[in-house]
Amino acid sequence: MRSEHSFTELCRRYGISRKNGYKWFNRHFIELAVPGGKTSFADRSRRPHNSPTAISAEVEAAIVDVRKQRPHWGPKKLRIVLAKQCPELELPSESTFAAVLKRNGLVRPRRKRTKSTPYSAPLGHAQRPNAVWAIDFKGDFQVGRTRCYPLTITDSYSRFIIAIVALTSTKTNVVKRALQRVFDEYGLPEAIRSDNGSPFSSRGVAGLSTLSVWWHKLGIRHERIDPGHPEQNGRHERMHRDLKLETASPPATTVPKQQRLFDQFRARFNQERPHEALEQKTPDEFYEVSSRRLPVPWWGKDFEYDQEAEALRVSKDGYIATHRGAFFLSTTLAHELVEIDWYEKNRARVLFGTLNLGEVVAKAKRRQLRFFPVESVDTTQPTTITAERPRKPSPTSLDNVPF
Fold it and tell me: Chain-wide mean pLDDT for the chain?
Protein backbone atom coordinates (compact mmCIF):
# COMPACT_ATOMS: atom_id res chain seq x y z
CA MET A 1 0.00 0.00 0.00
CA ARG A 2 2.84 2.33 0.87
CA SER A 3 4.61 1.79 -2.47
CA GLU A 4 1.67 1.58 -4.95
CA HIS A 5 -1.24 3.82 -3.87
CA SER A 6 -1.88 6.63 -1.48
CA PHE A 7 -4.45 6.19 1.33
CA THR A 8 -6.72 8.82 -0.25
CA GLU A 9 -6.68 6.99 -3.60
CA LEU A 10 -7.55 3.68 -1.91
CA CYS A 11 -10.53 5.26 -0.10
CA ARG A 12 -11.74 6.75 -3.37
CA ARG A 13 -11.40 3.39 -5.15
CA TYR A 14 -13.57 1.59 -2.53
CA GLY A 15 -16.13 4.38 -2.28
CA ILE A 16 -15.60 5.42 1.36
CA SER A 17 -14.51 8.62 3.04
CA ARG A 18 -11.01 9.09 4.44
CA LYS A 19 -12.56 9.33 7.92
CA ASN A 20 -14.12 5.87 7.64
CA GLY A 21 -11.00 4.55 6.00
CA TYR A 22 -8.81 5.55 8.94
CA LYS A 23 -11.39 4.17 11.37
CA TRP A 24 -11.29 0.71 9.79
CA PHE A 25 -7.51 0.89 9.35
CA ASN A 26 -6.84 1.67 13.02
CA ARG A 27 -9.40 -0.90 14.24
CA HIS A 28 -7.73 -3.57 12.11
CA PHE A 29 -4.27 -3.01 13.58
CA ILE A 30 -5.60 -2.77 17.14
CA GLU A 31 -7.39 -6.10 16.85
CA LEU A 32 -4.37 -7.79 15.25
CA ALA A 33 -2.58 -7.17 18.54
CA VAL A 34 -5.27 -9.16 20.41
CA PRO A 35 -4.94 -12.99 20.32
CA GLY A 36 -7.52 -14.36 17.90
CA GLY A 37 -8.60 -10.84 16.94
CA LYS A 38 -9.40 -11.03 13.24
CA THR A 39 -12.97 -9.65 13.24
CA SER A 40 -12.23 -6.01 12.55
CA PHE A 41 -14.46 -5.88 9.46
CA ALA A 42 -17.46 -7.65 11.07
CA ASP A 43 -20.49 -5.64 12.19
CA ARG A 44 -20.40 -4.66 15.84
CA SER A 45 -23.28 -4.40 18.28
CA ARG A 46 -25.13 -1.09 18.17
CA ARG A 47 -26.41 -1.48 21.70
CA PRO A 48 -25.67 1.67 23.74
CA HIS A 49 -23.05 1.36 26.48
CA ASN A 50 -25.40 2.96 28.98
CA SER A 51 -29.13 3.84 29.04
CA PRO A 52 -30.20 6.37 31.67
CA THR A 53 -33.90 5.55 31.15
CA ALA A 54 -33.52 1.76 31.49
CA ILE A 55 -35.48 0.26 34.39
CA SER A 56 -33.76 -1.78 37.06
CA ALA A 57 -34.02 -5.53 37.38
CA GLU A 58 -35.95 -5.03 40.63
CA VAL A 59 -38.66 -2.95 38.95
CA GLU A 60 -38.96 -5.37 36.03
CA ALA A 61 -39.35 -8.30 38.42
CA ALA A 62 -42.05 -6.43 40.33
CA ILE A 63 -43.96 -5.74 37.09
CA VAL A 64 -43.77 -9.40 36.10
CA ASP A 65 -44.95 -10.55 39.56
CA VAL A 66 -47.97 -8.24 39.66
CA ARG A 67 -48.93 -9.32 36.14
CA LYS A 68 -48.82 -13.00 37.13
CA GLN A 69 -51.09 -12.20 40.06
CA ARG A 70 -53.54 -10.45 37.73
CA PRO A 71 -53.04 -12.10 34.31
CA HIS A 72 -55.98 -10.31 32.62
CA TRP A 73 -55.10 -6.75 33.63
CA GLY A 74 -53.44 -4.25 31.31
CA PRO A 75 -50.49 -1.87 31.85
CA LYS A 76 -52.61 1.05 33.09
CA LYS A 77 -54.25 -0.85 35.94
CA LEU A 78 -51.09 -2.78 36.82
CA ARG A 79 -49.14 0.46 37.20
CA ILE A 80 -51.74 1.85 39.62
CA VAL A 81 -51.74 -1.35 41.69
CA LEU A 82 -47.95 -1.56 41.80
CA ALA A 83 -47.69 2.10 42.86
CA LYS A 84 -49.91 1.34 45.85
CA GLN A 85 -48.08 -1.88 46.76
CA CYS A 86 -44.54 -0.54 46.33
CA PRO A 87 -44.54 3.26 46.73
CA GLU A 88 -40.76 3.25 47.15
CA LEU A 89 -40.20 2.07 43.56
CA GLU A 90 -39.74 4.58 40.75
CA LEU A 91 -42.16 3.20 38.19
CA PRO A 92 -41.79 3.75 34.42
CA SER A 93 -44.50 4.83 32.01
CA GLU A 94 -47.41 2.67 30.88
CA SER A 95 -45.73 2.06 27.52
CA THR A 96 -42.66 0.69 29.32
CA PHE A 97 -44.96 -1.55 31.38
CA ALA A 98 -46.39 -2.89 28.11
CA ALA A 99 -42.87 -3.45 26.70
CA VAL A 100 -41.83 -5.38 29.85
CA LEU A 101 -44.91 -7.60 29.66
CA LYS A 102 -44.26 -8.33 25.98
CA ARG A 103 -40.54 -8.97 26.55
CA ASN A 104 -41.34 -11.52 29.24
CA GLY A 105 -43.92 -13.38 27.16
CA LEU A 106 -46.88 -12.26 29.26
CA VAL A 107 -48.90 -10.82 26.38
CA ARG A 108 -50.93 -13.04 24.13
CA PRO A 109 -50.81 -11.67 20.56
CA ARG A 110 -54.19 -10.78 19.15
CA ARG A 111 -55.48 -12.95 16.39
CA LYS A 112 -55.63 -11.07 13.14
CA ARG A 113 -59.25 -11.09 12.01
CA THR A 114 -60.08 -11.45 8.36
CA LYS A 115 -62.22 -8.50 7.31
CA SER A 116 -64.96 -8.54 4.75
CA THR A 117 -64.49 -6.74 1.44
CA PRO A 118 -65.13 -3.02 2.06
CA TYR A 119 -68.23 -1.42 0.54
CA SER A 120 -66.99 1.81 -1.05
CA ALA A 121 -70.14 2.87 -2.92
CA PRO A 122 -71.97 5.85 -1.39
CA LEU A 123 -74.92 4.94 0.82
CA GLY A 124 -78.23 5.77 -0.82
CA HIS A 125 -80.35 8.63 0.53
CA ALA A 126 -83.93 7.57 1.27
CA GLN A 127 -86.11 10.15 -0.53
CA ARG A 128 -89.26 8.02 -0.70
CA PRO A 129 -90.74 4.96 1.01
CA ASN A 130 -89.01 1.65 0.24
CA ALA A 131 -85.93 3.34 -1.22
CA VAL A 132 -83.79 1.94 1.60
CA TRP A 133 -84.68 -0.60 4.27
CA ALA A 134 -82.47 -1.08 7.30
CA ILE A 135 -82.03 -4.58 8.74
CA ASP A 136 -80.24 -5.81 11.83
CA PHE A 137 -80.41 -8.06 14.88
CA LYS A 138 -81.07 -6.37 18.21
CA GLY A 139 -78.52 -8.51 20.00
CA ASP A 140 -79.77 -11.64 21.75
CA PHE A 141 -81.15 -12.42 25.19
CA GLN A 142 -82.54 -15.32 27.18
CA VAL A 143 -86.25 -16.03 26.85
CA GLY A 144 -87.25 -18.96 28.98
CA ARG A 145 -84.96 -21.83 28.04
CA THR A 146 -83.89 -20.49 24.65
CA ARG A 147 -82.13 -17.48 23.15
CA CYS A 148 -84.10 -14.84 21.28
CA TYR A 149 -82.61 -12.99 18.30
CA PRO A 150 -84.92 -10.09 17.34
CA LEU A 151 -84.71 -9.45 13.59
CA THR A 152 -85.68 -5.84 12.93
CA ILE A 153 -86.49 -4.14 9.61
CA THR A 154 -87.37 -0.46 9.16
CA ASP A 155 -88.04 1.89 6.26
CA SER A 156 -85.37 4.60 6.40
CA TYR A 157 -87.58 7.29 4.85
CA SER A 158 -90.69 7.02 7.05
CA ARG A 159 -89.12 5.31 10.12
CA PHE A 160 -91.90 2.73 9.73
CA ILE A 161 -91.07 -0.57 11.48
CA ILE A 162 -91.76 -3.18 8.84
CA ALA A 163 -91.04 -6.20 11.03
CA ILE A 164 -89.74 -7.31 14.41
CA VAL A 165 -89.45 -11.09 14.40
CA ALA A 166 -88.46 -13.08 17.49
CA LEU A 167 -86.15 -15.65 15.91
CA THR A 168 -84.42 -18.43 17.82
CA SER A 169 -81.50 -18.62 15.37
CA THR A 170 -79.53 -16.38 13.03
CA LYS A 171 -79.04 -19.12 10.43
CA THR A 172 -79.49 -18.07 6.82
CA ASN A 173 -82.45 -20.36 6.12
CA VAL A 174 -84.37 -19.04 9.14
CA VAL A 175 -83.73 -15.40 8.24
CA LYS A 176 -84.52 -16.05 4.59
CA ARG A 177 -87.90 -17.56 5.46
CA ALA A 178 -88.74 -14.58 7.69
CA LEU A 179 -87.77 -12.16 4.90
CA GLN A 180 -89.90 -14.07 2.40
CA ARG A 181 -92.96 -13.39 4.55
CA VAL A 182 -92.02 -9.72 4.84
CA PHE A 183 -91.53 -9.39 1.06
CA ASP A 184 -94.89 -11.09 0.48
CA GLU A 185 -96.65 -8.50 2.63
CA TYR A 186 -94.73 -5.29 1.97
CA GLY A 187 -93.08 -5.87 -1.42
CA LEU A 188 -89.42 -5.35 -2.33
CA PRO A 189 -87.24 -2.33 -1.46
CA GLU A 190 -84.73 -0.77 -3.82
CA ALA A 191 -81.89 -1.32 -1.32
CA ILE A 192 -81.27 -3.02 2.01
CA ARG A 193 -78.71 -1.54 4.39
CA SER A 194 -76.99 -3.75 6.97
CA ASP A 195 -73.79 -4.13 8.93
CA ASN A 196 -71.00 -6.52 7.90
CA GLY A 197 -72.05 -9.37 10.16
CA SER A 198 -73.53 -12.76 9.39
CA PRO A 199 -75.85 -13.69 7.73
CA PHE A 200 -76.04 -10.37 5.83
CA SER A 201 -72.41 -10.36 4.72
CA SER A 202 -69.35 -12.61 4.71
CA ARG A 203 -65.59 -12.47 4.37
CA GLY A 204 -65.76 -14.04 0.92
CA VAL A 205 -65.68 -12.51 -2.54
CA ALA A 206 -67.23 -9.00 -2.61
CA GLY A 207 -68.60 -9.62 0.89
CA LEU A 208 -71.37 -11.78 -0.58
CA SER A 209 -73.38 -14.13 1.62
CA THR A 210 -76.11 -16.58 0.65
CA LEU A 211 -78.66 -14.01 1.79
CA SER A 212 -77.19 -11.09 -0.15
CA VAL A 213 -76.90 -13.28 -3.28
CA TRP A 214 -80.65 -13.81 -3.03
CA TRP A 215 -81.21 -10.05 -2.67
CA HIS A 216 -79.12 -9.35 -5.77
CA LYS A 217 -81.18 -11.85 -7.76
CA LEU A 218 -84.36 -10.09 -6.63
CA GLY A 219 -82.97 -6.77 -7.89
CA ILE A 220 -82.29 -5.40 -4.39
CA ARG A 221 -79.06 -3.46 -3.90
CA HIS A 222 -77.20 -4.43 -0.74
CA GLU A 223 -75.55 -1.54 1.10
CA ARG A 224 -73.11 -2.17 3.96
CA ILE A 225 -72.12 0.41 6.55
CA ASP A 226 -68.48 0.86 7.55
CA PRO A 227 -67.28 -1.50 10.30
CA GLY A 228 -67.54 0.11 13.71
CA HIS A 229 -69.84 2.92 12.48
CA PRO A 230 -73.41 2.14 13.60
CA GLU A 231 -74.24 5.85 13.27
CA GLN A 232 -74.50 5.25 9.52
CA ASN A 233 -77.65 3.32 10.41
CA GLY A 234 -78.55 5.81 13.14
CA ARG A 235 -82.34 5.82 12.70
CA HIS A 236 -82.46 2.07 13.08
CA GLU A 237 -80.15 2.07 16.12
CA ARG A 238 -82.28 4.76 17.78
CA MET A 239 -85.34 2.54 17.41
CA HIS A 240 -83.36 -0.33 18.94
CA ARG A 241 -82.85 1.65 22.13
CA ASP A 242 -86.59 2.09 22.63
CA LEU A 243 -87.24 -1.50 21.63
CA LYS A 244 -84.97 -2.87 24.34
CA LEU A 245 -86.32 -0.51 26.97
CA GLU A 246 -89.99 -1.30 26.32
CA THR A 247 -89.90 -5.02 25.42
CA ALA A 248 -86.82 -6.68 26.93
CA SER A 249 -86.32 -5.03 30.33
CA PRO A 250 -87.13 -7.65 31.50
CA PRO A 251 -87.91 -10.07 28.63
CA ALA A 252 -90.89 -12.40 28.48
CA THR A 253 -90.82 -16.01 29.64
CA THR A 254 -91.57 -17.59 26.24
CA VAL A 255 -90.89 -16.73 22.60
CA PRO A 256 -94.61 -16.32 21.67
CA LYS A 257 -95.09 -13.91 24.58
CA GLN A 258 -91.97 -12.01 23.51
CA GLN A 259 -93.34 -11.79 19.97
CA ARG A 260 -96.56 -10.27 21.31
CA LEU A 261 -94.52 -7.62 23.12
CA PHE A 262 -92.73 -6.86 19.85
CA ASP A 263 -96.04 -6.58 17.98
CA GLN A 264 -97.46 -4.19 20.58
CA PHE A 265 -94.35 -2.01 20.45
CA ARG A 266 -94.43 -1.97 16.66
CA ALA A 267 -98.08 -0.85 16.62
CA ARG A 268 -97.39 1.98 19.09
CA PHE A 269 -94.27 3.08 17.24
CA ASN A 270 -95.91 3.13 13.81
CA GLN A 271 -99.40 4.43 14.60
CA GLU A 272 -99.24 6.37 17.87
CA ARG A 273 -95.75 7.75 18.50
CA PRO A 274 -95.15 11.10 16.70
CA HIS A 275 -91.68 11.79 15.30
CA GLU A 276 -90.05 15.19 15.33
CA ALA A 277 -88.28 14.44 12.00
CA LEU A 278 -91.75 13.74 10.49
CA GLU A 279 -93.23 17.04 11.72
CA GLN A 280 -94.71 15.27 14.74
CA LYS A 281 -96.60 12.84 12.54
CA THR A 282 -96.52 9.05 12.78
CA PRO A 283 -94.58 6.72 10.43
CA ASP A 284 -97.85 5.12 9.36
CA GLU A 285 -98.88 8.43 7.74
CA PHE A 286 -95.81 8.41 5.49
CA TYR A 287 -95.29 4.76 4.61
CA GLU A 288 -96.71 3.03 1.54
CA VAL A 289 -96.37 -0.60 0.55
CA SER A 290 -93.86 -1.18 -2.28
CA SER A 291 -95.20 -1.71 -5.77
CA ARG A 292 -92.36 -4.14 -6.49
CA ARG A 293 -93.68 -7.55 -5.61
CA LEU A 294 -91.85 -10.75 -4.75
CA PRO A 295 -91.56 -12.79 -7.97
CA VAL A 296 -92.86 -16.30 -8.43
CA PRO A 297 -90.89 -18.40 -7.63
CA TRP A 298 -89.51 -16.39 -4.71
CA TRP A 299 -85.91 -17.62 -4.90
CA GLY A 300 -85.19 -15.44 -7.93
CA LYS A 301 -83.98 -15.97 -11.46
CA ASP A 302 -80.65 -15.98 -13.25
CA PHE A 303 -79.22 -12.70 -14.45
CA GLU A 304 -79.33 -11.81 -18.13
CA TYR A 305 -75.91 -11.37 -19.75
CA ASP A 306 -74.73 -10.25 -23.19
CA GLN A 307 -74.76 -12.99 -25.81
CA GLU A 308 -71.14 -12.22 -26.67
CA ALA A 309 -70.05 -12.81 -23.07
CA GLU A 310 -69.23 -16.19 -21.58
CA ALA A 311 -71.98 -17.07 -19.06
CA LEU A 312 -71.02 -20.01 -16.87
CA ARG A 313 -72.56 -21.66 -13.82
CA VAL A 314 -70.55 -22.06 -10.62
CA SER A 315 -70.17 -25.66 -9.45
CA LYS A 316 -71.37 -26.83 -6.05
CA ASP A 317 -67.74 -26.64 -4.85
CA GLY A 318 -67.38 -23.00 -5.93
CA TYR A 319 -65.33 -23.61 -9.10
CA ILE A 320 -65.82 -22.25 -12.62
CA ALA A 321 -64.61 -24.20 -15.64
CA THR A 322 -63.80 -22.03 -18.65
CA HIS A 323 -62.32 -22.89 -22.03
CA ARG A 324 -58.95 -21.78 -20.64
CA GLY A 325 -59.08 -23.76 -17.43
CA ALA A 326 -60.83 -23.76 -14.05
CA PHE A 327 -60.50 -21.53 -11.00
CA PHE A 328 -62.08 -21.28 -7.57
CA LEU A 329 -64.55 -18.43 -7.07
CA SER A 330 -66.76 -18.95 -4.00
CA THR A 331 -69.03 -21.60 -2.52
CA THR A 332 -71.48 -18.80 -1.71
CA LEU A 333 -72.19 -18.54 -5.45
CA ALA A 334 -72.64 -22.30 -5.95
CA HIS A 335 -75.08 -23.07 -8.81
CA GLU A 336 -75.31 -19.36 -9.75
CA LEU A 337 -74.77 -18.01 -13.28
CA VAL A 338 -71.87 -15.56 -13.65
CA GLU A 339 -70.32 -13.74 -16.60
CA ILE A 340 -66.70 -14.09 -17.72
CA ASP A 341 -65.84 -11.02 -19.82
CA TRP A 342 -62.46 -11.43 -21.62
CA TYR A 343 -61.62 -7.79 -22.22
CA GLU A 344 -57.98 -8.69 -22.98
CA LYS A 345 -56.28 -11.78 -24.34
CA ASN A 346 -55.33 -13.12 -20.91
CA ARG A 347 -57.58 -11.07 -18.62
CA ALA A 348 -61.28 -11.31 -17.85
CA ARG A 349 -63.75 -9.64 -15.49
CA VAL A 350 -65.98 -11.86 -13.38
CA LEU A 351 -69.47 -10.40 -12.94
CA PHE A 352 -72.52 -11.48 -10.96
CA GLY A 353 -75.25 -9.38 -12.50
CA THR A 354 -73.79 -5.85 -12.38
CA LEU A 355 -71.59 -6.68 -9.38
CA ASN A 356 -67.89 -6.90 -10.23
CA LEU A 357 -66.36 -9.84 -8.35
CA GLY A 358 -62.77 -9.52 -9.57
CA GLU A 359 -60.49 -10.51 -12.42
CA VAL A 360 -59.10 -13.72 -13.84
CA VAL A 361 -55.58 -13.84 -15.24
CA ALA A 362 -54.63 -16.69 -17.58
CA LYS A 363 -51.11 -18.08 -17.81
CA ALA A 364 -49.68 -17.75 -21.31
CA LYS A 365 -48.32 -21.31 -21.78
CA ARG A 366 -50.37 -23.37 -19.31
CA ARG A 367 -54.07 -23.98 -18.79
CA GLN A 368 -53.93 -22.24 -15.45
CA LEU A 369 -56.09 -19.37 -14.21
CA ARG A 370 -55.68 -17.18 -11.15
CA PHE A 371 -58.56 -15.20 -9.63
CA PHE A 372 -58.01 -11.81 -8.00
CA PRO A 373 -61.07 -10.66 -6.01
CA VAL A 374 -62.04 -7.00 -5.86
CA GLU A 375 -60.59 -4.95 -3.02
CA SER A 376 -63.80 -2.96 -2.55
CA VAL A 377 -67.40 -3.17 -3.71
CA ASP A 378 -68.63 -0.17 -5.68
CA THR A 379 -71.83 -0.62 -7.66
CA THR A 380 -75.03 1.37 -7.73
CA GLN A 381 -76.32 0.14 -11.08
CA PRO A 382 -79.80 -1.42 -11.25
CA THR A 383 -79.96 -5.15 -11.85
CA THR A 384 -81.67 -6.86 -14.78
CA ILE A 385 -83.56 -10.12 -14.38
CA THR A 386 -84.09 -12.48 -17.30
CA ALA A 387 -87.32 -14.33 -17.91
CA GLU A 388 -85.47 -17.63 -18.14
CA ARG A 389 -86.96 -20.53 -16.20
CA PRO A 390 -85.19 -20.61 -12.81
CA ARG A 391 -83.61 -23.65 -11.29
CA LYS A 392 -85.39 -25.53 -8.54
CA PRO A 393 -84.58 -24.74 -4.90
CA SER A 394 -82.29 -26.96 -2.90
CA PRO A 395 -83.78 -30.06 -1.22
CA THR A 396 -83.48 -28.29 2.14
CA SER A 397 -86.79 -26.45 1.89
CA LEU A 398 -87.30 -23.39 3.98
CA ASP A 399 -90.92 -24.32 4.58
CA ASN A 400 -89.84 -26.78 7.26
CA VAL A 401 -87.52 -24.40 9.07
CA PRO A 402 -89.10 -23.32 12.38
CA PHE A 403 -88.85 -19.83 13.81
Answer: 82
